[in-house]
Every structure is written in C-alpha cells, then in structure tokens.
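Form P-L/3: holo structure prediction, ligand adenosine-5'-triphosphate.
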Amino acid sequence: MDAIILQILNGLDKGSAYALIALGLTLIFGTLGVVNFAHGALFMIGAFCAVTLSRILTLSRTTIDETQTDFLGNPLKVEVPYAHDFFGPVVGDALIDWAVPLAILFSIPVMLLVGFVMERGLIKHFYKRPHADQILVTFGLAIVLQEVIKYFYGANPIPTPAPDVFRGSFDFGAMVGFEANQIIYPYWRLVYFAFAALIIGAVFAFLQFTTFGMVVRAGMADRETVGLLGIDIDRRFTIMFGIAAAVAGLAGVMYAPINSPNYHMGMDFLVLSFVVVVVGGMGSLPGAVLAGFLLGILESFASMSAVIDLIPGINQVIIYLVAITILLTRPRGLMGRKGVMED
Amino acid sequence: MGILEVKDVGKRFGGLQALGDVNLSVQENSCHAIIGPNGAGKSTLLNCLIGKLIPDTGSVLFDGQSVLGRTPYEICQMGISRVFQTPEIFGDLSVLENMMIPIFAKRDGAFELNAFSSVFAQRDVLEQAEHMLAEMNLADKRHMHAAAMSRGDKRRLEIAMCLSQNPRLLLLDEPTAGMARADTNNTIDLLKQIKDERDITIAIIEHDMHVVFSLADRITVLAQGRPLVEDTPDKIKGHPKVREAYLGESA
Amino acid sequence: MNIKPDFSKNANMAETAPAFLSVWDMHAYYGESYIVQGVSFNVHEGEILALLGRNGAGKTSTLRSIARIGSPLVTQGEIWLDHQPLHKMASHEAACSGLGLVPEDRRIIPGLTVEENLELAQIAPPVGWSLERLYDLFPRLGERRKQEGVTLSGGEQQMLAIARALARDIKVLLLDEPYEGLAPVIVDEIEKTLMHIKSQGMTTILVEQNAVRALELADRAVILDTGGIVFDGTAAEVLENDELRAEYLAI
Amino acid sequence: ASHSGFTNAPAGATVTLGFNVPQTGPYADEGADELRAYELAVEHLNGGGDGGMMGTFSSNALQGNGILGKKVEYVTGDTQTKSDAARASAKSMIEKDGAIMITGGSSSGVAVAVQALCQEAGVIFMAGLTHSNDTTGKDKRANGFRHFFNSYMSGAALAPVLEKMYGSDRKAYHLTADYNWGYTTEEAVKSSTEAMGWETVNTVKTPLTQTDFSSYIAPVLQSGADVLVLNHYGGNMVNSLTNAVQFGLRDKQVNGKNFEIVVPLYSRLMAKGAGANVKGIFGSTNWHWSLQDEGSKAFVKSFGTKYGFPPSQAAHTCYVQTLLYADAVERAGSFAPCAVAEALEGYEFDGLGNGKTLYRAEDHQCFKDVLVVKGKENPTSDFDLLEIVEVTPASQVTYAPDHPQFSGGALGTCNNGA
Amino acid sequence: MFGLDKTDTKLLLIVAVLCLFAPFILNPFPTSSGLAQFNAGYPDLMQRFVIFGIFAVGFNILFGLTGYLSFGHAAFLGVGSYSAVWMFKLLSMNVIPAILLSVLLSGVFALIIGYVSLRRSGIYFSILTLAFAQMSFALAYSVFTPITGGETGLQLALDDPRILGISQTAGGNIPVPALFGLEMRASWDLVLGDWQFTFNAGYYLCALILLAAFYMAIRIFRSPFGMMLRAVKSNQQRMNYTGLNTKPYTLAAFVISGMYAGLAGGLMASMDPLAGAERMQWTASGEVVLMTILGGAGTLIGPVLGAGFIKYFENIFSKLNDNVLHGWFAFMPDGLENLMVTIVHPFVGKGWHLTLGILFMLVVIFLPGGLVEGGQRVGRLFRRRDIKSTGPEAEAAQQRNAAE
Ligand SMILES: Nc1ncnc2c1ncn2[C@@H]1O[C@H](COP(=O)(O)OP(=O)(O)OP(=O)(O)O)[C@@H](O)[C@H]1O
Ligand SMILES: Nc1ncnc2c1ncn2[C@@H]1O[C@H](COP(=O)(O)OP(=O)(O)OP(=O)(O)O)[C@@H](O)[C@H]1O
Ligand SMILES: [Mg+2]
Ligand SMILES: [Mg+2]
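OUTPUT (holo model):
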C-alpha cells in the first residue's frame, strides 16, 4: 500500500515535469502545427538560464592563498564572488543559494525573447511548408543551440542545487500515519509540482478566458480566412510561440536542481514530449497534461521491482506500450481534435 | 423493384433528426432528382448510400444487395460512384493521372500490386483517360496540377472521373454548381447521352432547376429529413407546397 | 510586360466622379503562371458590380488579389478604397479598412462552431451586424449555432460565409459565387438583402455564373477573359448585347 | 594494404596512431580530456616537452625520437559513444589514414566493438576507458589490450574498505544500469560484498535512457536496506546519485545504522557533475592525480602545465596506453601487431602511476593497484573532489584467468592483417 | 532501356557511373596535399554511402510517395543486421544467405508493425512507429542481450557453429564475410602518381545492389502502384470512393520500404559483421528522415544525395582536429594562422554537429526541395545561360562587347 502511494507521488512529480514540457510543446505543435524539434532545446536553454544566473552570481575575483597549494604545488588561487563584495557575505551567499528561484524571473524575458526571435526569424516562414521541412529546420536549430551551449558550458552536467531550505526531504508517510521512513518526499519536488500546477493553470486560464486560444486555433486551421476577417494572425502566432518558449524555459529552470543540466538534456526529453503530446491528442491542452500525468504515474508503477520481476524489461518500454495501446483504442489520443495533423 | 431501394432510412446527429423514414426507389436507367431546401438531408442521404455514414435505421439495397456495413471502396466496386458537393480530386496529381486512377480501379479492382510496369505502358487505360478528357474539354489541361485548376474545371474533372468508372449508379451532388452556363449545358448533354448509351442510373441533387428539369425522370422533394412528395418533373413544378417551401417565385 | 488596359472598352475609367474602389493596372501571378494580366476598373459607392467570365477567366483570382491574400501574388498595380491604398496593406489591414470577401469555397473554419465562426469575425474592429440580426437573416444558422461549422450542409455553409462577412462593418463586399448551393428561395432572400444593404450604401462586387441573374441585380458589369478585362459598362448593355453574351458568357 | 606482411606497415618517416574518442554526446568532455593526454603523449614521444612519465617508466626503450625512429603522427575521430559510429571512425583511420594502432573510447560497448574490429583488420587496439569485465573476459581479443581496471577489481578493492567503514552486517540494494557493463559490475560488487557477509536485498535494473530515478530511489528505504549501490556510470550516475541525496537517503538511519551510498566506478568528471552530492561517498577509481608516486607526479605536472588543470583517470589511461604501445614496438623492434602483442604479453613494468603492473598474457588485462576513493568534504577547487582512502594492492584484485565472471570467449591468435 | 523512359534511363546511368567511378570521384585530392583530409574514397565510407543510400531510397518509397512519415524505420535496419550476423554465426560467412534472411525477416517485422501502425494516419502513425522502434531498441539493449549482444552489439566469436563454414580460420581467427570466397574486405589499390584509389569488393557488391534497388525504386515510382501511393497522399477519401482499398497499398509500401531497410541492415552487417542496438534508436530513424528530406523527399535521387551528405560530415568533418587545421594554415604568418584555426575550430572535429545543424537549416531555408532542388537550380542557371548565349540579343551583345 505505502509502496503504491509512494509511486503515485513519484508519478505525479514525473508527470508534472512531462506535463509541463508537453504543455509548451503542444502550444507550438498541437496549436500552431509546427513540428518543433527544437522544443527540447528550449527546455535545455531554460535550465541553462539557471546555470547562467548562478554563474553570474558567483562571478569571482581570484586571490592567492599562500597557506594552501594547488595540484601543481603552486600557491592556491581562491575565488571570492563579487556578490560578497557588493552585498556582504551573508546576503551574497543567500543570493547565490537562491539562484534557481531567481532564475525564474531571469528566464522569462530571456525565453520570451528567444521565442520571438525564433518565430520571427525562422519559424514564420515554415507554417505553410510541409512538416518534413519543419522537422529538418527545427532539428538543425536544435543541434546548433545545443552545440553553442556545449561550446560555452562543456558536455558535463553542471550541478545546480536548489536553495538550502528546499534541499532534503520530509516524511510524508509519517505525516499521514504510516511508519516512519516509508514514504519520504523531497521538498523541491513538492515545489516543482506546485509550480507546474500554477503554470498549467495560468496557461489554461489565458487560453480559456480570452479569445486568444480560439483565434490561434482558427489561424492554424486557415490563416488566409482569419486574415480576411481583419485579424493579424502573425502577431498572435508570435505571442503564442513566445509563451510556449517561456513555458518550456520555466520547466527547464525548475528542473535544474532535480537533474544537473547538460547540453543534451533537451534531446533526452524530446521524444518523450512528442509522445506525451500525441497520446494526449493533437490540439488538446488538457489532453497533453492528462497524458503527462498518466505516463508519469504508469512509468513509476512499472519501475517497482515487483512489477519488473513479473515482466522483465517492462520499465524499459512502458511509455511506448501505453502510447501504442491508447493510440490504437482512441484514434486521436486521449482528447485530440479532429483534423489536426491527421494527414 | 428499382435498382436502388432505400427503406425507412433514418439518421440522427445528436439532437437533430437529419433523416427520418426515407423511402426511395430508383428505377434502373432513369434519372432521379432529389431536391429540397438547404439542410434537408440530401447530402446525408447520399452519404448513407456510399458508406460514408451508416444510417441508424432502415436498409439500403443496391441491385438486391445490402450496402450497409460495407466499406466505401466495396460499395464503389459494386457500381456506385459519387460526385461530391465540394470537388474531391487528387490535387497533387496531374489531370491525366487523376483521370487514370478510376479507370485502374475499374480494371484491376480494389487492390493490385502492379509495381513493375510503367503507368504509361498501360495503353488501354491511357487511351480511355485521354478520351474522357477530350469529351470533357479538359484535354489541353492534361498535364496541369489538378489543384491549380479553377473550380469549375475541377468539378468537370470529378464528373469525368466518376463517369469513367462506368458505374451502374451515379450519384451527383450539385454537379454543376459553379460551372459556367455553357459547360452546364455540355454536362447536361453528356449525362443524357451517357445515360442512354451505357444504361446508367443517375441520382442527382441540384438546386439549379434548369438542370433538374432537363435531366430528371422523377423527382423527390426532401424537407427536414423526410420526403415531401415524389413525382414527375411537371407535377413537381406546379406543386404549391414545393413552390412555397423551396422554389420561390423565380422558378 | 506591361499590358495596358484597353480604354475603349473601359467606358467609365474616364468618368470624373471619384471612384470608391478603384483597381488600377493590377497584375498577379501564381508562382510562375501569370493569371491577372493588367486589370483596371472602378466601382462607385453604393453600386453593385457584376464580375463575369467563363471558368478559369480569373474572377476568383481578381477578388483574391484585391483582398491582398498573397496568392496570387500581386506584382504590380494600385488598389484604392475610399482614399486608402489597399495595395500597400496586408490582407488583415485591408479587411480592417473595410473590405469583406466571401470566398468561393466558403472557407468555414474547421474546429469552430457556427457561433465561434461568427464571433471570430467580430474580434477585429469594426464590428458590423449583431449575431441576432444575422440569425434573423438566416434562421437556420441560429438553430445550428452550437454545431461545428464544417458539418453544416453545403447551403448552410454558404449562409455562414455570407453572414460572416456581414458580421464585420465593411464598406465593400466581394462575393464569389454566393448563390452556389443555395435553394432558390434562399437566393431570393439574399438578393433582397443585397438590395437592402445597397440602399444603406454598401458597395458590392458580385461574381456569379448565373450571369442573367447577376446582371438583373447589378448596376454595372465587368467581363473578364483570360485574366484581362474585355468589357466594362452597364449591366443593361450586356443584357442587350447578344454578341458579347454569346462570346464571353455563352448565354 | 601494403606488402610488408601486416596492415598499414609504416613506409615513410612517420607512423600514424588513431585516437578514437567520444567528441560528441554525453562523454564529450571525457573524450576531450583523453585527446589532451594523447596529444601530450605524442609530444613526449617525439621528444617535445618535459617527457612526462617517460622519465619514470621502468623501461628505457623510448628515446624521445618517435617510435623506431619514425615521427609519430596521429588522426582523431569521434566515437559518439555508439559502437557503430566508433567502428566507422576506426575503420576510416585504418583504411584511409593508415593508422597502425587504434586507442581510445570511454565505454565498454565501444571498446568491445572496436577491439573486435582491430582484431579483424590486424592492428593493435589499446583500450581507453572501459570497465566491464567482458572487455578482457568473454569478448577479449588477441590484438586488444586494456590498462584500465574492471568490475571485478572494483568489487574486490571496495569490499574490504566497505567492511572496515560500514561493518559486515549490512543490507545492500543495487540499482543497476540495464546493459552489459551494469550486469558485470553488479555481479562483481554483489559477490565480493556477499563474501564478507553483506546481504543483497534487491537488485533493480534501470533503463539506459532514464533521467529521473526518483521512482527507483523511493522504494529503497521501504526495502529495509541500509546501503544503496549505484551501478551507474556517466549521466545515469550523476542523476541517480543526485536523486538519492535529494530523497534524503544519506540523512536516514536504518536498522540502527546510517544509510550509506556506494558508487563502484567513480570518475572525477562525474563527481563534478554530481556536485556536493558526492561528499563522503565511496567508490573505486583507476587512478587519481593526487597520487604521490613519481610517475603520477611527473604526469600531473606535465599535463597541468600544458593545460592548466590536472588530468582525469581517462587521460591517464590513454597517455599510458600510448607510451606502452610505443615502448612495446621499440622493444619488439617491429610495428607488426603480433610482435607488439608478444612484447606486451606478460610484460611487467613500473613507474606509470599505479605501482608495479603486469599485462597478463592470458587475457591482456593489466593488473595493478586499484584506488578506493571518497567524495571530499571540503574541496579546495573544481578538481579536488575525491580523496584517496586506500590503495588496494594489485595482489588483492588479481583473479585467475578462468574466473567465472570472465568465462566464455577466447583470446584467439593475434592477427597481423595483410 | 530496361523499360524506363529517357530521363529515367539517364538518371539510372548517372547513378551507375557515379557508383562505378566512386573510388575516383571521392578521392580527388592527392594523398600528400592538405586537402587529402576531404577524400572520402576509402572502402568503409564508400560502403556506407551506398548502404545508407539504399536505406533512404527505400524510406522514400513510403514517405515520398504516400506521405506517411515513419519514425521507426531504423528498427528494420536493426532487424536486418541482427539476422545477418546470426546467419554468419550459425550458417556460414557467405553474405548471400545473410542478406536474404535480413530482407525476409525485416519484411515480416515490417508487416506486423505496419499492419498495426497503419490503422492511424498523420502524426499518430508517426508516433506509433516511433514507439515500436523505441521498444525494439530498449529491449535489444537490455533484456534481449542474449540474442542481441546488448550494449556491445552482436558479434562473431571463435566458437560459433557456422555449420556450413568454419568456426575459425587456420590462423585461429574468425573468418570474414565473403561472397563465395571473395572476401568483402578485399581491396585493390591503384596508385597514379600522388593519387591513390582503392577498389573494394564489398563496395562493389553494395553498389550493384544499390543499382538494383534504385532501378526497382524507379519502376515503383513510375508504376500504377506508385501512382496509387501518390494518390493516397493526395486524397485518401477520394481513393476510397473510387473503389480502391488504401490499406493494402500503404501496407505494401510500408513492407517494401521495411525490406529495403532490412537489406541495408544486412549489407551493413556483411561489410562489418557487428550489429549494435543503437542502429534501432530513434536518432537512427530520425537520420534517415533527415537524409530523405535533405536530399529531396519524393525525388528519386534525393535520398541518396542526402545520405551521402550526412555520412560525409559524420565521417570526414569529425576527423578534422586542430592539428590538421594548423597543417592547412601553416603557410600563413603565425598570428594569422592561429586566428584562422580559432575561427574554423568550432565547426570541425568535435564541432561537426554544429556545421551539420547549420547546413540543415541553410538547405531547408534556401532550397525548399532539398539538394535536388539545388541541383535543378544550378541546372537551370546553365540552361538559361545557354539560351542567352545563343539568342540573337546575346549575340548582338557579344558583338558589341567585341567592338568596344
Ligand atoms: N456531422 C454532422 N453533425 C451534426 N449535424 C450534421 C452533420 N452533418 C450534417 N448535419 C446536419 O444535417 C442536416 C442535413 O445536412 P445535409 O448536408 O444532408 O443537407 P443537404 O440537404 O445536403 O443541404 P444542402 O442543399 O444545403 O447541401 C443539416 O442541417 C446539417 O447541419
Ligand atoms: N493555385 C493556383 N495555382 C496555379 N494556377 C491557378 C491556381 N488557382 C487558379 N489558377 C489558374 O488561374 C486561372 C484563373 O482561375 P480563377 O480561379 O481565378 O478562375 P475563375 O474565373 O474564378 O473560374 P471559376 O469560374 O471556375 O471559379 C485558371 O486558369 C486556373 O487554372
Ligand atoms: Mg448538400
Ligand atoms: Mg472562381
């Protein structure tokens, strides 16, 4: 029983990551109809916003410490962050500690800008082109973005911890009456879950309570006619793209403490996020979110050793197995719209 | 008994009874027109005949055999062809290729793995296609992308495609809409000629009364999913209810 | 490659009264094919102009060029609407300047209900007819307001396309075969509406295959052939000129 | 192919070596470090720089005038850490550039694949970083040599230290990467810890493509285990360790003992990726720059002066492999693979960092001291992340060639190619 | 010729000539020159060009004609490779049975996956194929290790049975794949001055098979079957109401292209007897998609060009290290040399991905029809110049120029 509760919690958390990534993707892919292979790269850039901010905050001057030596036997160079100089050691350290949450603020303008530039400079010309061309160009872009990040940050993962107060875990089991140590849960994952819920809610509200969503959907179905009705669809597409980039970026920023960011983390998530979006159903936001959570939870269950012992290798294939089952039983995924990318 | 027997066919869309208790009998080698106000259920009825929709109730017999439960391609292979209300053609293919496909379907059946001979080596098909294009005044457009044609031309192509299959029952959904007058008249002549020569049965939906009255042997008026009257063209012309609900003063 | 319009046939180009909509020496291409070949004409405020010609003459292309859709691509020419240079605008700007087009294939937006299709038209100012008024004109649309637009019957879709244009406050209405697929009674209804809005000052360009019907309604007529203007004059002139009708309209 | 009796016999005044390392993909940084070491080795062989370990190497055959008087040139390629790409790259070096020896790589899959290729083509393969038992076990080849340690050795070296630190009454839970290297490492660590009295409560395989290990970490505590063994490498290890620490495993008490985590195979680059999470965590490693023997010191100095930071264990292995190859050629007096292999087989040497070392003839595995390390509590720099806890002597990690963990496969005979 | 029309015959002949003379065409630079790094005329890469060419040509039969975008074709490549290696292990080192089995098994595999996946279209189909391929990859890498060799790939061993052959050679080595005694790796060098050209048995076998495969593809493209496939892409609805059953058409296309992939996989294993699981990963499926689009989807020669392009970058650009760069720019003054190396450095060697990414973008932005479109544009340019130079105006202009 507690094992199951535990996996549900894990699943919710994994699911919120999937849902958040898929949410950004479905805005571009499900709504604008662009097969965006660069979405993973946007997620990755978000995570590197956190890395960059923490690098900026820890920008240091070097002083020589004569009492210690480095690996070559020379006096050790010690780095003192400028933040200490400007804000004093206490505030300075606190700033460095809070780099990831601060990066949320930092990343929003950055990602919006990235999204706008990407849409205006590139994607704009590809709405009417075949999906295959979209794949090629966005895949090329993804490689370029990755390589640029690799050039500056290297290929190794870069640890980007959460603020000290969020490190470690709490005993969820003990709180709800189970034995101690049976159901533990890290604080940061709780934060991640809450954050994901917030972003998902905000995006839903924006698209639900304004005509924006409807106009963009209409524009995707038939740009020409929407233009004839006096609507500047280009501008709305740009905004939509910017929002999607920002959502992807935020998902990345918040993910940085969970797994150290590296330059190819986007590619690792790319296939999965496409699967989530399609299983959710093309053009459906709630579908993508639902599929994200569903796959997250099922993946967690499949990783239980009792299950693996029963069906060896199930944890390797569960996502795809579920995807196949759903797509075969429901022609348009969980909540797909008719006619979106069916040909 | 007619070649097409529609019995008690009904179809609902959610709360809307699009068709109810439709009974229709189309005699072999006749032209049967179905007219009626917009949204009366005419296209829906045709959809039920070709397997695009499955009626909720009733039965449809073609030449004594039920068409319900068959897939569209099977129904077509039985000898029913349809021209759609908005032209359905192969936009990415050339006009000539568009013309050849139904002829292949006629010759080779629903599937044939004919992967090693050249399309243009199939002389018989090619000749028939060229002939049909010439008949439809489309010969000079044969190498054009079908999608790049004007709409009137597309419609003529679609009719030609259906005719080339030598169907026993040809269903036409507003075949002359958007066609220039001259071509409309050509089409009427062609249909008449084909009906006589090849003993084809035609069921036609049209709002252009000129076409209806030139072609039809019998007319069914459909209103709100139900047949209102069925009679000969002359009787229908003078029918007061039809005049009021459908034809208006201009007819 | 500058094909100058033939002024001898362009009677009213020389008129002094300032035109409301004026198209001057417009050329447009689909890719490499040269379709609109130097079209010029004027329309005065409150006038109905019939734009006629055979299939493939370039009527649709002309309307699309005026509406600045981008395909066909206008390479040269000026379009002025009420002193605003449409030729410098994108299609949505032209629409906001008072242009409304009812496209020939209706272009109902998939995925949206009837009501959403209409609401969409009222997002960008200025707003025209209210939904209630539109539903009064086309009661069928009112009944079907929650239905997805593309599942409407052909005629209902046509009504929706017209209603959508009226939902915006426009100065010039471009109608591309608006009667297609409509029952005769509805056509009568729409003609009445056109006369009504004309009396309120609406300027209309009407493309229609049923030339006689269009000419009876219109004040003036322009006839197109292979992308160029072959006649520009009053509607009555065409009705009286058998030669013209036979040559370009085949009636 | 030339007619001197073996593949790519050097004809002119130069000899070409092929450095086949991951330049793209997750191990690109490791590959870059390997490449630095190779370049340094070539510099030293050609008589440039300070000579590095050539001065401390027990063999004096190398003169700093290239190999057999021929200037050493090299070509590089990208393995992408995929066996296909690695073989393509190695083939191009052999077929196009005339490389006479191929070396490099940073995973066992690649090492095994390229080793088989070199056997077939008739060139020598000097493995880079490869830790799986199979490389010199069931997939061993006569033309391939490994200077790196292996899963068995990790287990054998770790067990005594773990016993000393954590006692012999422990319950271990293994998370294992679901592919060959993971299997051999799990088996090795399991059998050596069980031998000293530990109990293995559970072993769970995790997919290669897994990035978030939470659902595997979370049940660990419920199992009653008090040690978690992470048989993961690279990104998998960084993530699983990070997740384990996130879940607070290290702060827990189970069975009245502190919960502990063990990482059988450590590398400094991984430790850097995992950041503060490695503090106090034990594992084994092939070599570390803080070793104080003369060879290591010379190498660190030479490398550090040139590049500004200390070398990684992968760099060390690659450097040493190049020297060993060159030395064997000098001693054999020929580039012919079989002659070189003969010179390497059963060869004993010293001064290359891990003390006295033997290239065993039976399986071409190097036997040398293995380091047990621990994540440092107070690192002074980015490189100072691990501290050496124990240098396990070679004798303790040596096993019989027919040890069950290495069974199957045959070395075959050396191939000179054509 | 061969039942092809003139342009197709020309195309086939061009491909034949390219294949035949590839060892010359791909090795244009003398071995001693700095540019020799750009030579691609060594057996392994030449084999790869044609093998991936076959793969892409087959993929294009499905994607180019029907528009169904499969993201799982690498699975068939993998199945082909595994079957071939198993054949080498169990039966003999002759490549013929190995290749036959690869084609057959991948065909069966494609039939099963295609039958299920083709119940959906559009993106849903793509994701279904992706899911199947990813499952195959994940399982091959882990649970199926006993059959697939897992991480290290499936290899030959000295103790394999090889019932119709020998387990090991007299010298105690594993025998190599051969065609009735002709070893696939057998090569013959032609040295002409500073140039060296290598002729390799395996390459020519692959090239012959590519020609056959290409010829078949032309026939399929031009056949009624090919036309039906294009019709499927254009309007399925119309197909159905024309009395045609689209499902067997798409399934046949899927199986044929799966068999092409299996053939490529079998050849790959025949040239280099090892089958790695990465061959089935989505990135490998993605690669063939990229090859096809890059070259020009729906064109005959495009996929082959695309395959060559990507493989060239992967194998040639990744080998350009700083050492090589310094070699090139050595003639410059030191400062300039270093500057040049610094500029070029990020784009070669470990930066080859970057170059590839940039080229993908440039090609798709400026040549919407892929490389073939680029070729056509160049062709048109020449033709236009021809017309110009023969036109009367041009003549007049020339005369004027001469007079001045
Ligand atoms: N899929 C559907 N869902 C809901 N209602 C539908 C659907 N398809 C058709 N209808 C409704 O059913 C009615 C009959 O439609 P049908 O297309 O058969 O009319 P029709 O007689 O062909 O009219 P028209 O002459 O205008 O083409 C219409 O009111 C239409 O709105
Ligand atoms: N997308 C396109 N690409 C290329 N050519 C086109 C395209 N659309 C139309 N054409 C060509 O342009 C010409 C004019 O077409 P247009 O649609 O304007 O004619 P139309 O007068 O509206 O005819 P109809 O009465 O049949 O609707 C036709 O010859 C047509 O083939
Ligand atoms: Mg209808
Ligand atoms: Mg038109």
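COMMENT: Chain E touches chain B at residues 3-5, 219-220, 222-228, 230-231, 233-235, 237-246, 248-249, 252, 256 (CB under 8 Å).
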